[in-house]
Amino acid sequence: MIRKTLYSFVAIAVLAGSAACGNTARGVVQDTRESASAVRGGLETIDVKSALIADESVDSSSINVDTYQDQKLVVLRGSVPNEAQKTRAEQIARENATGYKIDNRLAVVPQN
Hints:
Layout: H1 2-54, E1 63-68, E2 73-80, H2 83-96, E3 101-104, E4 107-108
Parallel strand pairs: 2-3, 2-4
Antiparallel strand pairs: 1-2
């Protein structure tokens, strides 16, 4: 009787451990997918910001670039001194974040 009870407890412990490992494995897969998505979004941010910096017609010092991989969205925030630079910054973002929507929230703030 004691032996059967002990075997039952061991069997329950093994099943619980297996379920926990399965949940852990699923969690690792999900975490890996989320990390990969974040990396891809980060690469888009770097590509766009680098292109903005390289383009001498845009003052990129006050431009922030945020990428939302899950929405396939690049958001430009900050300010530029004129409308032409705002338009050019959006064009650069479109050219360097292929397949992403661009949300241009840049403010035009003339320099004194």
